[in-house]
């Protein structure tokens, strides 16, 4: 739920001028997310949103430039916060994560466009990566471990 909500927040601030936390709460509720201002405040902090000028003296929430265009840093940050363990089993890689975070990890890995990965499946606390070959499974485990070192 948190991952879906935070993806929706990114979508909302990219599509409209969200000026306050209250505006964001209202926009999320209009999208059927039952949130409080405190939850939105934590999301803003976790997403490291910034305020940028609109040109008429007002400000709106935005995604910082370095977050928008650096998927490796996004993945590293998420892995540092949520990753527990990685293991290869033939051409499959199983990533254990904190509860509720595996979908976010799967989505970030999908965004990396690594050619060795055919696809990902994110559950609650487990992400499954499907690699093309058995050696690529081990290679991906090592690459993931290198990211968090």
Summed up:
By secondary structure, the protein is an alpha+beta fold. The protein is built from seven helices and six strands; from the N terminus they run H-H-H-E-E-H-H-E-E-H-E-E-H.
Task: Explain what the structure shows.
The structure is a single chain. The mean pLDDT is 91. The strands form two sheets. Strands 3-4-6-5 form a four-stranded antiparallel β-sheet. A two-stranded antiparallel sheet has the order 1-2. β5 and β6 (126-131) form a beta hairpin. The protein is elongated, with a radius of gyration of 17 Å. It has helices at 2-15, 21-30, 37-47, 65-68, 71-82, 102-111, 134-148, and strands at residues 49-53, 59-63, 83-89, 92-97, 117-122, 126-131. It has seven helices and six strands; from the N terminus they run αααββααββαββα. The two termini are 28 Å apart. It has two domains: 2-68, Winged helix-like DNA-binding domain superfamily/Winged helix DNA-binding domain (Arc Repressor Mutant, subunit A), CATH 1.10.10.10; 71-148, Gyrase A, domain 2 (2-Layer Sandwich), CATH 3.30.1360.40. 51% of the residues lie in helices and 23% in strands. The longest helix is centred in the C-terminal third of the chain and has 15 residues, at 134-148. With 149 residues, the protein is α+β, with helices and mostly antiparallel strands. Residues 80-145 form the Arginine repressor C-terminal domain. Residues 2-69 form the Arginine repressor DNA-binding domain.
